[in-house]
Design goal:
Helix content is 42%, strand content 15%. By secondary structure, the chain is α/β, with parallel strands linked by helices. The N and C termini lie far apart (43 Å). The model has no long low-confidence stretch (mean pLDDT 96).
């Protein structure tokens, strides 16, 4: 089979992040030429910085494919404390990147969106056409709406400028290399860290935010990367495309599964003064299966096991 990615020039923003690191590694294995861009090099909130970045590969041939993964992102606590910063940073990054890309001679633009953009009370599994059926859940809304601006911008650019940009909606990612920092971590790394600490310290219980009744769709990082690469190669539509596991799991079940895997046998206390976030989340991935021939392969229990083992090695447990 012909390797589509061999010797392709690839620009990846947010390359030092969780998703960016894995995407760079996989495209490198496919023999692409990677231009990895991080916030340490260019602050994409500023148009002049974005244009400087594009200037750095303006004469590169063949024309580059650009993956925009750059984002300011965190868990529920971070979202609650920084709604304005989340909205403005992500809106500026997305708008600046797409605007500059339309004026440079690139082959294709891939914008990574978020499941947080879906309406609060949408009924899972979320289909792509449900994206505009209501307002997002409040703690996620500034981030989700800022990211959703990119879809409108890409659709307008395709209509007016014949610009080839696609928009991918991801469910909650997890896996080795995830962010385990207390302030920024999402639910899976936060729970793994908490359960391991409770086991080490012989704590009688752990406390989990919310009721445990909210549901999520968790996508293992390798599956996410393979879906993004497949879409970049095969998908050329103005309509958004879901990438998820296609499975919905209650947080209470997730907590139980993680505690089993780390062998923590204490009690679980749910702090119902803390928010659940969106009540339910699950993506319909029929479109990706039909168009790309893609579906998630790593089951949640196996993905959690791999993530736990990676984290234990990282911290020397």
């Amino acid at each position: 089979m012909v390797n589509f990615w061999k010797d392709k020039n690839i620009v990846i923003t947010g390359a030092s992040g969780f998703l960016g690191t894995h995407l760079c590694n996989q495209l490198g294995k496919l023999e692409a030429n990677i231009f990895s861009m991080s916030s340490a090099q260019y602050d994409l909130r500023y148009q002049s910085q974005v244009e400087s970045m594009f200037d750095s590969f303006i004469f590169v041939q063949p024309r580059p494919i650009v993956f925009n993964l750059a984002a300011n992102v965190g868990g529920i606590g971070y979202n609650q404390n920084h709604p304005y910063r989340l909205f403005t940073d992500n809106a500026q990054i997305t708008l600046n990147m797409i605007d500059a890309a339309t004026r440079y001679n690139i082959e294709k633009f891939i914008q990574i969106g978020t499941v947080c953009a879906y309406p609060k009370f949408a009924k899972p599994p979320f289909r792509e056409e449900m994206l505009w059926d209501g307002y997002p859940e409040e703690t996620n809304a500034p981030y989700g709406l800022a990211k959703k601006l990119g879809l409108v911008q890409l659709q307008a650019a395709r209509q007016e400028l014949n610009f080839n940009g696609i928009y991918l909606l991801q469910s909650n990612l997890y896996g080795p290399g995830d962010n385990f920092a207390n302030y920024r971590s999402h639910v899976i790394p936060a729970l793994i860290k908490r359960s391991l600490a409770a086991k080490k310290n012989n704590e009688a219980k752990i406390t989990v935010w919310g009721t445990g009744e909210a549901t999520r769709d968790f996508l293992y990082i390798d599956d996410a990367v393979n879906g993004i690469i497949s879409a970049a190669e095969k998908y050329n539509s103005s309509e958004p495309l879901n990438l998820g596991s296609g499975q919905e799991i209650r947080i209470a079940v997730l907590v139980y599964m993680i505690n089993q895997l780390v062998d923590y046998r204490g009690d679980i206390e749910y702090d119902q003064t803390k928010p659940d976030g969106q009540p339910r989340r699950g993506l319909n991935v029929d479109k990706a299966k039909y168009i790309l021939g893609w579906k998630a392969k790593i089951q949640l229990r196996e993905g959690l096991r791999r993530t736990i083992e990676w984290y234990k090695k990282e911290v020397g447990i």
